[in-house]
Structure prediction request, 290 residues.
Amino acid sequence: MPQGRVDPRLKYNKDDTYVNLCVKYSVFVFNLLFWIVGAAMIGIGAWAYMEKNKFFVDNQPDINSIYDIIFDVSIIIIVVGAILFIWSFAGCIGALRENNCLLKFFYISLALLFLLEVVGGILAFVFSNQVKERVTKVLQEEAIVRYRDDLNLMNIMDWFQENFGCCGVGNDGYKDWEMNVYFNSSSDNPSGERGAVPFSCCRTPNNLEDDAVHINKMCGYEMLSKNPIEAAKTIYTGGCVSGVIKVAEDNMLLVGGVSIGVAVFQAVAIILTRELDRSIAMQKELWIKQ
Prediction:
């Protein structure tokens, strides 16, 4: 019998339904949780943005390019939270009210996202060298140059350097900090940090003889004037792009497992929502025929 057709020989009971309650409320609860997460992200992102820019009373920071948004963590949190909120709203209300339009919007959007992830992963693998070069250039121009100008960006850069054992971004490693106005070693730089690198580059930032708890923020001073062999005794000298790639390669099973887990999670959500949408459509057709 064709899909969606009702066998007229079967006696209809008004309590019968094609809608599986287990599937319906699984989709509902799944989306309700992400709806709450999305709302929380919007709130946290808005709070972080206002806190970071509360000193800009008359003028807000300039946004001159897409990278000014991409590297503004608070804006990214708000945008991701808003997208998650809208998607999960459609799935949550669509499942609860058995609305085919909202359910279709949810699983089609999720399917397109899944497709983009697959295509993006394939392109990144095929053009890995070009992607690495582009990412390195963007990070040098944004994360390195703007290091002291954005507190959130500075904290993220410090986290990467500390946790991935790296300094700077590209193949020049710690020498990338010559691009920063505060750290460059030119003779006309009046900064007290001239010729230094951030303390997060240090192998042992807690190296104060009389205090093993507090960070020695001067541990990276005068490192830019040293050659890689000498500097390597005190700081990490390799760039973070290569450092992240190396960690990913060393933990390939974990990275692969997480990637497969995310893909399976998305696929299950798409299948369940599509099945719920189909069963609701069949139920509505049955009501019409009766």
About this structure: Residues 21 and 276 are 9 Å apart (CA to CA). Residues 8-12 have pLDDT under 50 and may be disordered. The radius of gyration is 26 Å. The longest helix spans residues 252-289.
